[in-house]
Description:
The chain is an alpha/beta fold. It contains six helices and six strands; from the N terminus they run H-E-E-H-E-H-E-H-H-H-E-E.
Amino acid sequence: MAAVLAEDPGIVAVVGPGTRSLLHNEGALSASQDLELPVGVRIGHGRATEAPVSGLPMALSVGARLLQQAGWSGPVRAYELDDARNWPTNGEDGVNLARWADRVGLLVMGNGPTRAGADGARRPDPRAEEIDAGIAAALARGDADGFFPNMDAALARELGVSGRSPWQLLDGAAEDLTTHRLLCAEIIDGVSCFVATWSP
Length: 200
């Protein structure tokens, strides 16, 4: 979080998985909204120090809380993405999102494969291990090999990967981000978790 705010963004966009594709404006903004327009995402009337609006998916609410804990008091936009979107759409949205301000901070939420079933039992899956390795490498290298655009939506859904669409949007927005660091890649309670920073 410190890395995002250290770049002195004019606005922070919290991007995360949900059940639909929606740019939230006090909880209700049309999914067809042109992202190039300066129309509202506001978490708590535009300030991350307020409580997130009701109706936000868990990932976006967690992102807003992280901003609050980091002391961010500037404008916030929240963009929910469903897991069925394709790469061209997500990538184009990323390009448009990067134009919201001269300096846009991105907080991209999402997890890798989920290895626990409904009963909590762990189910090793070699496909999950392969995707884990691909995600970690892509985050560490700025996705130089195009792993995220080529991630299969059906397989990601089957393995519980919620980060596919958010990471694809990040790819589209990241043209000028040349420094990439993978800070953490762990399995926590059966879920693959990653922390990375991409910066100019």
